[in-house]
Design brief:
Number of strands: 44
Helix content: 10-25%
Structural class: alpha+beta
Strand order of the largest sheet: 3-2-4-9-6-7
Shape: globular
Strand content: 25-35%
Radius of gyration: 28 Å
Length: about 800
């Protein structure tokens, strides 16, 4: 039977003629950090102080004992980052140049000093560039010239920390006769029965041995002979329970066990979990253009998505608990699709296991982003090898529903001046329209493939045409007001977003001792976007009187503006289902403490945007929309049940007076949108008025509910004027400490009331973000991680509460 022994102990990292303890899996930066050799690159401007690390050569070493008792011993690296030589007692076992694949070396009968010598990723990239020629990219760093996580070289939200190391597990595998080299389970469903067709490749040490494989799924067993080095075993499982995305059903998973046999003696075992479901991507033409709609188990979905970047710039630090915690946050926010962005990695089994269990659909980019990639050797062979390995590795997971060729490269070729600069040079099109779809079709035909994002489906349309396929909406953040999200209805919005700084406690940890200001040295260093602060300021100026010299107020307003911006887009696009079939917010998470588009900051704290997503991505959403015919109320119902109720409309003054009101009955069918015109006499006029729409009721009179479930307490607001023009009353409210949180009672209009709980204690978290209270209404905000004690704490709470105020 194959024996696998992890090689995690006894590793050292050579440094300055000495030896440092090394962690495997790990990387050079984390080992140097643990040894106290470098400062924390996440704190202050430490990133600059460690830039030298990425340009050095590094060596890891350990002792490898001689193995016996088996015919073959393999040394297996699941991930080497990136350019390395592997030696045993000075004998070269092999060279590597790809972070995204595994490597296997025959060490049968060998032992001694194992060395892994890493070259500088910069040196390798520059050598390839010198050989193949310059290729354009969105950033100056040479990330497109080697197969490595692109965002190691920095991004507009990430630091430049170019890693090296044994970043995924390493082990010895000892075996005799044969081993399982590759297992591909093709999982399909037909007429209520599930089929698992397992295609098997084996490696032999004895050519003459008669081999068989036996597979068990859901208590059903099947057996097949191995002909040479391959075979197929098919298992039919009757009456299977379907795996569904979260919100549509349950996520039953079935254990698959495949055993390789020689004369009924087990040689090797492969175990995974699968889920039975069908997935299609409807890209058919229609009256609006070309669609892009996910269809799971014949159910058409509006995808409520987020973009995912590596959760740490040092991916070896991300373990199963952290993956589960972050993905649990996504699921709790109503997310049902996670796009693994192409400047990162093929995500780990831990990531996919969590998504399988949580019902999160996964869109996996192949790792190409924002650059023209050469298609010549040595890159072409590496690209196909990594694609083949990772397609097979990830295909058992039911959560995986789309392979996508790249991020923004087809768009870049057409719009970013690449076509002229490249002339006839290769730039990646052969990967996205040739190699990658061929690999997916051959190895994983049960899943759809898209050539890129954005992509209109063919060169007949502009790659980022909102009427065709996927669309990235970045003109708004870069140049326009977020109200312009309403200018069109893309078929699928795969990227859009708005920036905000991280939580206050995150800033205080990352910038200790700094007097915080939007343009203070540390704040500027932790803002990586081109003219990021300028765009933040212009975005504020369109709506608010700028808070000169008041950092706390600036921090509050930028976070509120982020939530409002994303809400503007999602409410508009969800209200146009089924023409628009999904939104994927840029982005869920951060890889370090930074001002960015994330909903969860680099320390794992939820921004107000996160809580806003809980409202925006709930099954039922109420929104007020300005359209050509006037003001419209839209009831968006993504649940499986009809939503019927009464909509209470109130035209109000900012002083709290009701100018006019009406009750309107409405019905929204399952998975549909119902809208109707707001009566003309209730449409607010001028900066002193606004409209309130309430669907359902709250549990006690005057109390604001969560609005998350079943249509209870849902509220929509429409203010016809910008905040800078609204004569808000000076906010008056009462605060009381209650078990598990605080209670706020409004005596005036409190628009965008926000508790920044981390100002009370860095460990404190509030259970909701911004909300608007009318005079006389009260709300209980749950707070965990903070224990209130006395009236002094109530006073502290008031300093952590923010809302819109009259202009000074």
């Amino acid at each position: 039977m194959l024996e696998a022994t992890p090689l995690t102990e006894g590793w050292i990292l050579k440094h300055e003629g000495g030896e440092l303890p090394a962690s495997v899996p790990g990387c050079v930066h984390t080992d140097l950090l643990a040894a106290g050799v470098i400062p924390d690159p996440f704190v202050g401007q430490g990133e600059r102080e460690v830039a030298w690390v990425g340009r050095r050569e590094w060596t890891y070493e350990t002792d490898l004992a001689t193995s016996d008792g088996h015919e073959q011993t393999d040394l297996v690296f699941d991930g080497l980052d990136t350019v390395a030589e592997v030696l045993l007692d000075g004998r070269l076992l092999g060279r590597t140049r790809n972070m995204h694949r595994s490597y296997r070396f025959d060490v049968t009968g060998l032992g001694g000093r194992l060395s892994v010598r890493f070259g500088s990723a910069y040196a390798e990239a520059e050598a390839v560039r010198g050989k193949l020629g310059e290729r354009p990219a969105a950033y100056a760093e040479p990330y497109q010239y080697l197969r490595k996580m692109a965002c190691s070289f920095g991004w507009d939200w990430g630091p430049t920390l170019v890693t090296a190391g044994i970043w995924r597990p390493v082990r010895l595998e000892r075996w005799s006769t044969a081993r399982l080299a590759r297992v591909r389970p093709l999982v399909t469903v037909e007429d209520g029965s599930g089929r698992v067709e397992v295609r098997v490749d084996v490696e032999r040490s004895r050519v003459e041995a008669r081999l068989a494989v036996e597979a068990t799924v859901g208590g059903v067993r099947a057996r097949a002979e191995i002909d040479g080095t391959s075979g197929t075993v098919r298992v039919e499982v009757p009456d299977v329970r379907l795996w569904w995305p979260r919100g549509y059903g349950e996520q039953p998973l079935y254990d698959v066990e495949l055993t390789l046999l020689h004369e009924d003696r087990p040689l090797d075992v492969w175990r995974r979990r699968v889920g039975f479901r069908t997935v299609e991507l409807d890209r058919g033409p229609d009256a609006h253009g070309t669609g892009f709609t996910f269809v799971v188990n014949r159910e058409r979905l509006f995808a409520r998505g987020v973009n995912w970047i590596p959760d740490d710039v040092f991916p070896s630090r991300i373990g199963p608990d952290r993956y589960r915690r972050r993905l649990r946050q996504a699921a709790d926010a109503g997310v049902d699709l996670v796009r693994v962005w192409g400047g990162g990695i093929y995500e780990s089994e831990d990531f996919y296991d969590a998504c399988d269990e949580l019902g999160l659909l996964v869109w996996q980019d192949f790792p190409f982003a924002c650059a023209a990639y050469p298609e010549e050797q040595p890159l072409r062979g590496e690209v196909e090898a990594e694609a083949r390995e990772n397609v097979v590795r990830l295909m058992p997971h039911p959560s995986l529903v789309l392979w996508n060729g790249n991020n923004e490269n087809l768009w870049g070729f057409r719009d970013w001046g690449w076509e002229r600069r490249l002339a006839s040079d290769s730039w990646g099109e052969g990967y996205y329209l040739g190699v990658l779809p061929r690999v997916v079709a051959e190895l994983d035909p049960t899943r759809p493939y898209a050539a890129g994002s954005p992509w209109s489906g063919s060169w007949e349309h502009h790659p980022n045409d909102p009427a065709h396929g996927t669309h990235h909406s970045w003109e708004v953040w870069n140049r326009e007001d977020y109200a312009d999200y309403r200018a069109n209805v893309p078929r699928f919005v795969a990227e859009f977003g708005w920036q905000a700084p991280p939580a206050y406690a995150t800033l205080r940890r990352a910038l200790p001792g700094e007097v915080l200001a939007p343009d203070s040295p540390g704040m500027l260093h932790h803002q990586k976007a081109d003219d990021g602060n300028g765009k933040l300021e212009r975005g504020l100026a369109r709506h608010f009187a700028l808070p000169e010299g008041n950092f706390d107020r600036w921090h509050y307003l930028t976070q509120i503006n982020q939530a409002r911006a994303v809400a503007t887009g999602i409410e508009h696009w969800r209200a146009h289902w089924p023409v628009c079939a999904g939104t994927v917010v840029w982005q869920l998470n951060d890889c370090w403490p930074v001002t960015s588009w994330a909903a969860i900051d680099g320390d794992g704290r939820e921004k107000p945007l996160y809580h806003e997503l809980r409202r925006l991505y709930a099954d039922r959403l109420l929104t007020l929309q300005v359209r050509e015919g006037g003001l419209v109320s839209a009831a968006v119902n993504q649940s499986a049940r009809v939503w019927s109720g009464t909509l209470a409309l109130r035209r109000m003054s900012v002083e709290g007076l009701v100018i006019g009101s009406a009750n309107v009955s409405f019905t929204a069918g399952a998975r549909s949108v119902a809208d109707f015109a707001v009566p003309r006499e209730l449409v607010p006029v001028g900066p002193k008025e606004f409209l309130v729409a309430d669907a359902g009721g709250s549990s006690r009179p005057g109390e604001v509910g969560s609005g998350d479930e079943g249509g209870e307490g849902l509220r929509a607001l429409h203010f016809p004027a910008a905040d800078r023009d609204i004569p808000y009353p000076r906010p008056r409210f009462e605060v009381a400490l209650v078990p598990g949180g605080i209670e706020v009672t409004a005596r005036t209009l409190l628009r965008d009331l926000l508790l920044q709980a981390d100002r009370l204690d860095p460990a404190a978290r509030a259970d909701r973000g911004r909300l608007t209270l009318l005079p006389g209404e009260r709300v209980t905000i749950g707070v965990r991680g903070w224990k209130s004690r006395d009236d002094q704490d109530a006073a502290a709470v008031r300093t952590a509460l923010y809302c819109m105020e009259p202009h000074r």
